[in-house]
Amino acid sequence: MRVDQPFVRRSAPLSVQRGGEEDQPLVMIVDDDASIREALSELILSAGFQPVSFASTRELLDADILDRPGCLILDVRMPGVSGLHLQSHLTENGIAKPIIFLTGHGDIPMTVQAMKAGAVDFLTKPARDQTLLDAVTAAIAIDSERRAEAAIAMRNIKRLETLTQREREVLHEVARGRLNKQIAFDLGISEVTVKLHRSNVMHKMEAASIGELIRAWETLPAQMRQAGAR
Known about the structure:
Layout: H1 5-8, H2 14-20, E1 26-30, H3 34-46, E2 50-54, H4 57-63, E3 70-74, H5 83-92, E4 99-103, H6 108-116, E5 121-124, H7 129-160, H8 165-175, H9 180-187, H10 191-204, H11 210-218, H12 222-227
């Protein structure tokens, strides 16, 4: 990994950041132009964000920091893997990192491609400082929201794993809006047994109401919700 040293000296080295500031968002800048990296890093620092910069997408991937909170500022055309190819790579690997494209070589088809793939913004160099900072602020907010949703989903997945198969079946039916007597008929069990299973489900899922239970259910991955029917 090569991080531009002038920018690291303005703040704690990355190794220190990883040890004590794991939750601090990083603005990851990837541009093959050293002067652009310097200007962007100075701007990001001036706004109170933490920049870290790379001369290529390969350097970024080798740094293994994409799991950190934050966003990416990517040039589109660079030696090796381009910014658009990196966007595709991240999407294919399930890495939902907000991306801001900043390029001197943009065109309408390229912009449309990037935005359809989920880019936060597509800016042309030289971009206004405030425009770029607004995009960074929005991207970090998107990343924060995604992380919060992922944490809730993971919490509910762990709770779901404590349910028995029958309890999962009952949960699936409750989430469908089925009444106890309907669930009992469908599963071939008594209504009293359904009530017992439902009570156990709410306890294990830590839901105080059916509404909370259904909201927890909706945070689960689709394949897990479908599996509950079997």
